[in-house]
Design brief:
The protein starts with a helix and ends with a helix. With 115 residues, it is mostly helical.
Length: 115
């Protein structure tokens, strides 16, 4: 579990730095394009989710199924859930749901100094 958490934090730190530096441009792109960009830049699909799947696959899948039925997604969002490599939208939510305050220069400085 610690390795998965470490991997997640490293990916989030890299995401913040690349976004602030203008290396990672995601604005005005479709969800599928964003996922493809993250895959191409070698971001890991949610490491904690994958660790949990290895530990207790049935429980995690049931939990996600109940979350999917409670969400009101449009057709484009449902179609974009799975990429050509098998990653799902939720595999990158841990990056895409970062608070916008994480993209401040102050956060970048703290992130860079802690890694």
């Amino acid at each position: 579990m610690l390795a998965a958490e470490s991997k997640k934090l490293n990916n989030q730190a890299r995401f913040i730095v690349e976004k602030i530096d203008g290396i990672l441009l995601l604005e005005n792109k479709k969800r599928q394009e964003i996922i493809s960009e993250l895959v191409a830049r070698k971001y890991d699909p949610d490491p904690i989710r994958h660790w949990k799947l290895k530990q207790n696959k049935d429980e995690v899948l049931e939990e996600e199924a109940s979350d999917d039925t409670s969400d009101n997604e449009d057709e484009e969002a449902r179609a974009a859930k799975k990429s050509s490599r098998g990653e799902t939208k939720s595999d990158y939510d841990y990056l895409m749901h970062l608070n916008m305050w994480n993209l401040s220069r102050e956060k970048k400085g703290r992130t860079a100094s802690s890694t």
